[in-house]
Amino acid sequence: MKSKVVLKKQADYDLNAIECFIRDSVDRLFPDASPFKPGDRVLLKPNLLRSATPEQCVTTHPVILEAMCRVLKDFGVRSITISDSPAMGSLNFVARQAGYEPLVKTYGAQITPLSRPTDFESLEKIPHLKIAGCLDDYDHVVNLPKVKSHRQMTVTLSIKNLFGLVIGKRKPVLHCLVQNDKVKFGRMLVEIAQKVNPTLTVVDGVQAMQGNGPMNGTPFPLGVVCAGRDQTAVDRVMTEILPVPLERMYVLTAAEQLKFGQADMAQIQLVGETDLQLLRAEDFKLADRPLDISFNPLRLAKSCFKQFVELAFKERWAKSGPA
């Protein structure tokens, strides 16, 4: 059976339009019955890499989360939790800067840090690989990635977004342990995605990030929302839209090696917008200064200290206001 991927042109963050897209996607992807039942506990996993406003396109736009909250509430879920492990800054501060606070007041969503680092046995035998054990507390994980260029992995989409479920400062250590092998790093990401197994993925491609992402790129009006159950298929379709050379899609290479999901376009059924030529963003720019996977330890320490000081100042300023 072909993997379904739902696509829609979406030029702006119109809440009602995106809510309708998510409802339609759930109907099309789960034709027999919605997987979300009354009483379920749902974890939303956006991209909350660092403190940034929605306009900077670093984080998943709050309208995507609000639309998802509306749909989940109508299905009668018991609780909605928003979580991630930012590279810099506390989760609450980063989420506040991203515009998520109204979701707490309006929909009763909780913004809760990931907890209980739990050993995860990888086929790659990568030491120190732990993911959030608190995932076991939820009936569903909904993956809400932001489309961004990535200086190390070319682009970050649905599979890469789940790397945020590795808690805290373990992530840069794992970058170093794969010894600059981007496909090996991709296999680790795929194994994490297999373990997490999100119920649904909804991709925020309305305003993407191009250039030297995932932190320092520039906004790009991609104008697309995308949804699917098969993360590999979702990422493969988005690769066609951007477009990205397949030889630089290390995550998809890894997914094919591990036989995870569907990376063959002939085995993917497009629903909604089916003419990818009309969606292709030929002028989308990838990083002009790609990086190795591994971080230089000294440069990493300096960068972490600098960003820590900047974010600590921002958080203190946000709490106390100007003197």
Provide key terms for this protein:
single chain, alpha/beta, Rossmann fold, 11-stranded mixed β-sheet, 13 strands, DUF362, DUF362 domain-containing protein
Description:
This protein is of the alpha/beta class. The protein has one domain: Rossmann fold. Helix content is 35%, strand content 19%. It has helices at 15-29, 62-74, 91-97, 101-107, 158-161, 170-177, 182-196, 231-241, 250-257, 297-320, and strands spanning 3-9, 41-46, 79-82, 110-111, 117-119, 130-132, 140-144, 146-150, 154-156, 200-210, 218-220, 224-228, 268-272. The strands form 2 sheets. Strands 1, 2, 3, 4, 7, 8, 9, 10, 11, 12 and 13 form an 11-stranded mixed β-sheet that branches. It has a two-stranded antiparallel sheet with strand order 5-6. A hairpin with a 7-residue loop joins β10 (200-210) and β11 (218-220). It is globular and about 45 Å long.
Concise structural overview:
The chain has helices at residues 15-29, 62-74, 91-97, 101-107, 158-161, 170-177, 182-196, 231-241, 250-257, 297-320, and strands spanning 3-9, 41-46, 79-82, 110-111, 117-119, 130-132, 140-144, 146-150, 154-156, 200-210, 218-220, 224-228, 268-272. It is of the alpha/beta class and 323 residues long. It has one domain (3-299): Rossmann fold (3-Layer(aba) Sandwich).
